């Protein structure tokens, strides 16, 4: 009697297990958690985001006030990352600069992703001359090395952080357009899209309800990966004086400010460089992890 | 008498293939090459033939998922051949399709209820009615209402095909084109789905164009049968005519290949030699002459006429009388 009781319980547990509906989201989360490196990166990125929001309020020192008694002093208990040529605390400036780099990275990639997605969907879905025109323009843009294109755009628009965002966004567009176009072609040829066509659905509905969700996973993956390189490009542009202008605590601008003292005070460039390095790295690692978790072809 | 729902006249669908090396011409694949037939209200007309003979292409052309190269399609006495997508939308409501592969024909990112609801949204039905209708449909096809909240990957092949059928039924169509609806399923499940289709036909007075390569399935569901070979109909007749008195040697060969559950029954087996010829380069004369056991010189040169041999029984062969 006792036996049958436990058996019945086991059976019910089994039934219950089958009843749990695994939505695509929970499936994704389950796979994502298995990616240790990406998960750690994700935590660090969350931390970076928090810093970006509260950074300016928690800096231990004022970030613009010069302190001529402590010029170019090395890392110490008082100044964790040392001070720069004006005696400003580098650690405080890095914290305050987080929001600039993150903002530039996110907005520029977001703009590039939106533009690229629209163009890629149009090229992939409509094909023909729409496709040819869009893809040839993308080829032209891709033929330039990214940073050169950005410098060219800034040469037209003039230096400044806002124009850096535009420049980075523009050179992100063709890459997104290509990726979205190729997954659009893939989804468009599926039977369920044909089924939707046979129902009489308008192209807008097919694109928005069926094709766009199908391309979303590659957009997300690439979006994350691209943030790293966007931050890097923005920092490079600031480094050569085309982006953020001193005394802004933008990381690239800080690197630029420290390059004259490279031999006597390497910490002035080392710490902002580390900040860039870590941020770019964690975004790339997260992108890798997302790709593995979102790609339906990689099961388990 | 019976009313014609769909009239297809001489439809052709040619695909331009790859361009030949050092040549400007493209290879043209004549997937469907001049079909003429009627589908009568309330009947099940089956299209049978080997893979690659143009059955599925015919179904897609009828639904205008593919543009016909030539010919005309009338639905309910209205020509729909040259309508654009907007003009066609009211007719889309009248004709729906059930697809062969129940795994690929449902969007894996949508819940079942969203999939079934989609045709209702497209045809502008209000939210409250939609919800009611989706539940109704789920029960009609033998699923439960709570299945609506699940995703397609949680169902078996047979259940998915039921979802596909529910989607097709959603807007109360008159014609359903079933493109090999059971060929991807286990035999035990096939019978369930076929019976479901039959029950639905009675209940909703549906007309089916049933595309299949499986003659035993066709015998189970059809009223009339059209046999296709290389993009053409070689024989068309009632189920009894085709199965008991086939006229065309190709039909005879197909029938002789159907397994019969009686090992002692002796019968003549016609084994066809070789493969189905390349539709880009079909044989001259009668397309079947390369594989026909009765082929003569005449068959190589002259294309046989598609003629009536009494009582709505049509065939395209020079030697129907001689072979009878």
TrEMBL record, chain B:
Residues 6-255 form the ABC transporter domain. Keywords: ATP-binding, Nucleotide-binding, Transport. This is Dipeptide ABC transporter ATP-binding protein. It comes from Savagea serpentis. The keyword Nucleotide-binding applies. GO terms for molecular function: ATP binding; ATP hydrolysis activity. It comes from the Bacteria. It holds the Pfam family oligo_HPY. Belongs to the ABC transporter superfamily. GO terms for biological process: peptide transport; transmembrane transport. InterPro entries: AAA+_ATPase, ABC_transp_ATP-bind, ABC_transporter-like_ATP-bd, ABC_transporter-like_CS, Oligopep_ABC_C, P-loop_NTPase. The keyword ATP-binding applies.
